[in-house]
Amino acid sequence: MNRELRIGTRGSVLAVAQAERVAAALTRRHADLTLVLVKITTSGDTLVHVPLSRVGGKGLFIKEIEEALLEGAVDVAVHSMKDVPTDIAPGLTIAAILERDDPSDALISRRDMKLDALPTGARVGTSSLRRQAQLLRYRPDLLVVPLRGNLDTRLRKLRTEGLDAVVVAAAGMVRLGRQGEITEILPVEVSLPAVAQGALGVEIRVEDGRTRDLVDPLNHQPTAVTVAAERAFLGRVGGGCQVPIAAFARLNGGELHLMALVSHPDGTGMVRGERRGPSDRAEAIGIALADELIRQGADRIVQELSERALEPPAAP
Questions:
Q1: Hey, what CATH topology would domain 105-185 get?
Q2: How many angstroms separate the CA atoms of 276 and 74, rounded?
Q3: Dist. CA 264–CA 245, nearest whole Å
Q4: 83 is catalytic
Q5: Distance between terminal CA atoms of the chain?
Q6: Which of 11, 17, 15 is nearest to 177 (CA)?
Q7: CA–centroid distance for 36 within its chain
Q8: Each residue's pLDDT tens digit, 126-146
């Protein structure tokens, strides 16, 4: 049997670190396996000067990797699950979700100031409308600055673009070994995480039974359950990167607790809620909470922002 396995990944330092984590987990279980990392440039990596809300973020960071997977150029793809659309491409499936890292958002500030201590008018950079909406909801006196690029680039821009702070995913900082730079982990009451933030997914071809057998032991069922609830919520609400949407689920024994919100980018009109139920009904809980927020007006926010994203940019 061919014991080589080709792992498709984006080429950023963080993406490679994530793929190497999957490779190490596979090596621990299959010592005779030869693992090859295949770096693939995605649309999201090249369109770094355009806001995600303008280019349409759905699948932007995985499209080319999925194409390589379907064509047989790679055997597995490693994704941050927050980048994976709720509708998986035909012929592909998420075969394993690794144990989740810290799903929180993290503040890194230039003068080691926590969020509450930042002065009025402080410039805070983020690549996410979700983070922007919640920051402005909590601190409307801040100036939130759009920030694109991989994690290394965003951290560098903290010092090169006159920012007072940036907000990024804590999991990325940990995976790069830079957790010591974190000024503050933001509580979920201030910044509810993105759907599936902190979770890595392993995608394969549906018919590839050999690869499925290899990666199946990597699946962490508690993480898979919570991610399923969050993704069910997102699938029901709809919307892409132009809509600030957050959802985060926790398990307490056999009970699942899901929190979620939908907002305008400036933090106004925010609707949020939470729901609890048995963990074996994770997807049903996600759908039920989505329906609850839709009754509060989430669908109108999604429709308005989706239509706005289709409008041509204003002339300079």
A1: D-Maltodextrin-Binding Protein; domain 2 (3.40.190)
A2: 40
A3: 9
A4: yes
A5: 60
A6: 17
A7: 25
A8: 989 999 999 999 999 999 999
Q: Which residue spans of the chain are classified as CATH 3.30.160.40?
A: 230-310
Dihedral angle over CA of 303, 308, 310, 311, nearest 10? 150
Write the pLDDT tens digit of every residue in 48-100.
555 555 545 556 779 899 999 999 999 999 999 999 999 999 999 999 999 99
Tell me the two tokens of residue 66.
């999925």
Q: Which of 32, 75, 83, 141 is catalytic?
A: 83
For the chain, where are the alpha helices, taking DSSP H only? 13-29, 43-46, 52-55, 63-71, 129-138, 151-160, 170-175, 209-215, 221-237, 282-295, 298-310
Coil/strand/helix, residue 48: coil
Strand partners, 201: 79, 97
Do 7 and 23 form a contact (C-beta atoms < 8 A)?
Answer: yes
Q: CA torsion, points 205, 198, 152, 49, in degrees to nearest 10?
A: 70
Task: In whole angstroms, give the CA distance from residue 35 to residue 218.
Answer: 15
Give the whole-angstrom CA distance, residue 200 versus residue 81. 5
Q: Do residues 266 and 133 touch, judged by C-beta distance below 8 A?
A: yes
Q: Where in the chain is the domain with CATH 3.40.190.10?
A: 4-99+198-219, 105-185
Token pair listed for 264: 């305008």
pLDDT band at 277 (very low <50, low <70, confident <90, very high): very high
pTM of the complete model? 0.91
Name the CA dihedral angle for 145, 146, 151, 157, rounded to a multiple of 10 degrees.
-50
Q: Which of 138, 137, 156 is nearest to 147 (CA)?
A: 156
Confidence check: pLDDT of 287 > 60: yes
Write the pLDDT tens digit of every residue in 294-304. 999 999 999 99
